[in-house]
Amino acid sequence: MPLTFAQDSDAALPLYLVAPDGLDAVKARLTPSQAKWVEANGFTANIGEICILPDALGLSGALAGLGTKPARQRTRFALAAVRAKLPDAIFRLETDLDGEALTEQALGWLLSGYVFDKYAPSSAPKAQLVTPAGVDRAKVEIVAAGEALTRNLINTPASDMGPDELEAAARDLADCFGAAVTVVAGEDLLSHNLPMIHAVGRASPRAPRLIELNWGNSGPKLTLVGKGVCFDTGGLNIKPGASMGLMKKDMGGAATVLGLSHMIMALGLKVQLRVLIPAVENAISGNSFRPQDILVSRKGLTVEINNTDAEGRLVLADALALADEENPDLIVSMATLTGAARVAVGPDLAPFYATSPRDAAAIVNGAEKAADPVWQMPFWDPYETMIEPGIADLDNAPSGGFAGSITAALFLRRFVTQTPRYVHFDIYGWNPSAAPARPKGGIGQGHRALLEALSDLFAL
Description:
Elements: E1 13-18, H1 23-29, H2 32-40, E2 50-55, E3 58-65, H3 69-74, E4 90-94, H4 99-111, E5 128-129, H5 137-155, H6 163-177, E6 180-185, H7 188-191, H8 195-201, E7 209-215, E8 221-226, E9 228-232, H9 241-244, H10 252-266, E10 272-282, E11 294-296, E12 302-304, H11 312-325, E13 330-335, H12 339-345, E14 350-354, H13 357-370, E15 374-376, E16 394-395, H14 404-413, E17 422-426, E18 430-431, E19 441-442, H15 447-458
């Protein structure tokens, strides 16, 4: 089901989105019998509450709880919390909200219509909403479509979302917007000097590859690099079963940059977009890369393998080195990279690192505008020695267990030396429990914050 607003209609019924402190004012706009009905139903305008308004002919509208300001700070997308409770009708929104707060509610409404029904039937909410006055319909629908793409890719199991299928998704996206896609796969990775992508993916019968998408011929150069580990067994340092259960989402970085790319291209932003996705399956066989192996990267840096389950930074390193050679205006990597990030900030926040304080401030500001929470983490230089094993230039899995997300980010930064502006997101890509507009399952993180930040990042 497309995530779109209904066409405006004279038959659209009022849907009052009301906070507790505004309830009396809304009741004053109703008929006396409707106001008494609201009181009789005990409606207090908390998030998730609705009150259906009847009249002599049937349904005449509804009230939806916006909740208090502190409650809205804890629960985004309040309007989305009621959509599934509303009857099959077309509504028009009546609210005092405007600007970013109104856009947040409109986007939440659309995202609440997302269902993943590829393998079993699932019903989307029936209630529809006409575009609220003051909302940029085209932009909100484009953002919702990009998020749906990301969710679909992450939610698809690895049996149907390997490197081949991830490449196909990139090609489908490119075809929609006239972008170009090139792919280097299998043994050709070695002749194209992408040895660590090859090393991580060579054990799988599903050939590893580097997927590249290019779009736009004017404006600043933006390069997005997304981790595309389509399934991660942990390699020879095999994960326990409980840790392997969600590894279909280990390509969440790739899925998120593809969703963001959809938004950028559909909006026609004036950037030169380059997307690099190292797509592999970290499998186990006789030719798996091993603990204590030393790999030579595209950049020439040597990497001692102290854990084959720290493979994401290896494939990203080659892709980042390739991106850096072009010296774009900004490189952004997105990856489901470390469990340490989850321990630090939980599943809802997207931690990020930035070499430029101005870029970091723009992203934080964009996150506020987009209701897409992020948290800045430091490239903490004193920890550089933790990723230097002595026998090689770099250690892919420093011992000790401290600062795991930071040391991973520092590792990646070693491969971006020509491009002054680099941002790295260590995302989770998964919503562990249902919330308004965010069902349990795959989810994009940080991409809407970046989209909103682009105008500040590049003065677009």
